[in-house]
Amino acid sequence: MEYFLPSLHSIGALIPGLMSMSLALFLFLKKDKTTPTVWLGGMFLGYVSLFLSYFATYTFFHETGAYHRIFSVAIVFGLWAMIGFSYTYPRNVHVREFKIVMPLTFLIATAGWAHFVYATWNMEKYFQFDAHLYTFLFGREASLVILLLMLFFLQILVRKTLIFSEYKGPLHYWTLTGGPVRRIVGSFLLFWHKLILPRGRDARASRDFFLGGVLMVIVGVLNALQKSGRLSYDTYGILFGTITILAFFYIFLVYINNSPEPTTFMVKLVGISAVALLLVFSLGSYITLYLNEAAYDRERLTEVRSERNLILRGEYQDLSAAIQYVMVRPDEPGLFSDRYRIVYNRNGNLSLDSVRSGETSLRKNLALEYSEKIKGTYKDLKGDELVAKAFELLGQEIAPVMQRRYRIADTFYTHYDFVHQGQRYEVGYSYNDYREYVAVPAIRLMALILASSFLMVIIFPLFFRTSLVAPLNRLLRGVQQVNEGNLNVNVPIDVQDEIGYLSQSFNGMVSTVRHARERMQEYADSLEHRVERRTRELNERMQEVERLKIQQDGDYFLTSLLARPLFFNFNKSKKVPSEFIIRQKKQFEFRGKEADLGGDICVTGNLRFGDGQNFVRHTMVMNGDAMGKSMQGAGGSLVMGVVMNSIMARSAANDRILTSTPEQWLTDLYNEIHAVFKSFDGSMVISATCFVINDDTGESWYWNAEHPFSVLYRNGRASFIEETLRLRKLGLDSEMPFEVFRFQFQPGDVLILGSDGRDDLDLTADEEHRTFNEDEYLFLRHVEDGFGQLELIEKMIVRAGELTDDLSLLRVEFQPAATRTESRPDEFRSLAENLFRQGKQLYKDGRMDDALRALSNAFIIYPEDPQINKMLAIMSFKNRDYHTSIQVLQQYLSQEPDLAQFWYYLSIAEKAVGNYAEALRAAEQVAELEPDNLNNLINMADLCRLLHKYNNARLYAEDAHRIDPENKNVQKIRNLVLEKPAEVSS
């Protein structure tokens, strides 16, 4: 074919064209495909138009090839589909935005494409030699539209990655509390953490598609740079094809691993193999064709050097038949010249007029391209002035010698120049000869790629079907038969490979199960007699267990009675007030009395240090946690309580003034307690922290025996006082020497001591697999969220997870600004209002879970706020968190009792959790406010039916039927209550 002359870049467009076509067909032909799959197929279809149009113009050497740009610019519709995919994968969380953006971006894409078609329809075509194609000197605007669409696609995926990410660590907390600077910094760090290390399958998939989009944006940037003249076409062609293939390969892998529809093993195997093969072919083809071009240049340069002397002597009749012409001009600056002389013209087709005409056209196009390159340097020049400057600079360039260059003179030529005695000799060759030279290996490579792709798609499945898929299917059918109850299954084994071994293991497993079932049947035949005997034995054991349990509960109760007077807040200081809570994990009942038992202990008291009448009052606080469960831990705390109270009684009784120092007293205290626990030979140990605080100055002394770090709450921020372990538990040898440490409190400082129960939380108590808290800083956030108040801190802990150990918290405040009252401080309301505003914004952003968490915290801190209660009640009800909605609705309705709709919500929530009587009482409130509320009448009829109040149920059903007899729900409940027999009515 005369025009069939594949160029250097043909393969670079063919391979991604084949890949995008295969991917588009694969996606569109999938059964039960989802909406994201259709959008992704549309994206690849757009790239089919782009690459195949470029392949056509690279391959067919004709001026009509310039119109390929009409089809290549249609990529904007593929990018539009890509935006649709980003919105809908894996689900659409921006529904309203989607309905606005998609029509708008379609109009932008259509306008950009139509503008390009209109602008180029009658535009002069020119041949771009570095790309070896006909084109128009136009398209920078379209490349910018393409780039903008790609960037829009990326920002959607970034937002969805952030929304889907399940990270709830310290950075998340920073964005919810604190001042504006902290929230800004926290939001910035949280953004990058969620984007780089997303948590959750959907978040990781969105991030991975975003990375694939980044590769495509890089291609878009390269396109814009090439169109603006800042990147050579050769470089662009290589990068364009290679990066696009990598992007497609990556997106395909991400899709296969996160496909919303089932994908067969064969598709994954063949698809990944085919894409990898095409990628290798692409890189290999570029290398081969570039080496082929280099070989062509070496042949021509060798020929020019060998013919140089003939040309200089004027012996043109002996020149090689490949040389078409020889021209001479003075060797002066400038890529173009008006002083050419044709000294040799093989076929007489070359004339100076055609040379000048071709140079005029080429010079104009080069000047327009060059003006884009120099735009940044000559910022004060615009339009024609910039083009004129480009002409001037082109006139100053030195034309290279002994390099392939191109000329237009009625037809196309390649030429190589050499200089001799101030004259530049131009040796011309046919451009068609060059294209034919390049086309030979290109055609062979194209045939190889097409054949290999065909073999990959056809032969690979046949091969794998026999050796891999068929054995797997046989094994799968065997599994299905076993699931259906057929244990007489034997999977045939053809080859002893991995699948053969798996099938053999499966057969052995089924055989084992079959024999086990047979033995079970034999066992079942004699089961009745065995059950009777075992039942008698079990009843005897149960009676024995019951007797032991009563005895054990008595021991528990006695121990709890002994421990109770030891855990008392004896501190009377108003300058350093203290309070504590103890929640022992072991709860039990003995003879109708409820009690608890555990290893946590808190002891406080007052000491006086000095000499005679000169003394200083000090406050002592101690928090401990004895190791062991139930009785063992309780025994340890009992021993600790007896010893501590004994020492305090000895040190403070009868207004005693201690002549030692607080530091010495703490040392003696440690040694005495340690000696007591040491006597148990390791069977009873306890961790503890003990502080002695000067009531006037705030100077304190303390030791920490492997107890959780002490927490300082100062100016709204919580931090640990200790930084590292300093001492082993009491009763254990310590490799670290004992030392009493000092700390200086400031007025208003709060000290929080707590056992490790504060951190031992089951974060997923309602799920099958338990996840325990491993964040040591979580308690600091609870202290800050609770404003250092024990009541709120405990609520924050319980809300975060389920306690798995005893919990004790001890609070000491040094010289409080004012005596606290039972009413909550104003700052509670301020924080609650701040969380409420954040919850509203999170809800608007579609982050429902985060919004619920923020509003729940606001409710815990300030449950009296009606606007918080209203929004949290509605959101938790819609989210089917009925337990939370019941709690919040009850609080809200105590403030706003005349809202029928919320009474109805409360009734439905109570009904959902099985509290039918409470649900009926709430529904009766609705009936008082809105007697003809149809939905409530249906609900009341159903509730009465569930409570077996059939007469009332019939009355409510008849009232509903009177209001709307055609309503299907009315008819349904009416039929349910009317079918009840009269004798069961009451």
Describe the structure.
By secondary structure, the chain is of the alpha+beta class. Helices cover 58% and strands 13% of the residues. The protein has 29 helices and 21 strands. The strands form 6 sheets. The chain has a 5-stranded antiparallel sheet with strand order 4-3-7-6-5, with helices on both faces. A hairpin with a 2-residue loop joins strand 11 and strand 12 (614-626). The chain starts with 9 loop residues before the first helix and ends in an 8-residue tail after the last helix.
Structure described in brief:
The chain is α+β, with helices and mostly antiparallel strands. The strands form six sheets. A five-stranded antiparallel sheet has the order 4-3-7-6-5, with helices on both faces. A five-stranded antiparallel sheet has the order 8-21-18-15-16, with helices on one face.
Instruction: Return the average pLDDT rounded to an integer.
Output: 82
Number of helices: 29
Helix content: 55-70%
Q: What is the beta-strand fraction?
A: 5-15%
Shape field:
elongated
Low-confidence segments, given as residue ranges, are: 819-824
Which assembly state applies to the chains in this document? single chain
What is the number of E strands?
A: 21
Return the structural class.
alpha+beta
Please report the distance between the alpha carbons of the first and last residues: 98 Å
Integer-rounded radius of gyration: 43 Å
Strand neighbour order, sheet with most strands? 4-3-7-6-5
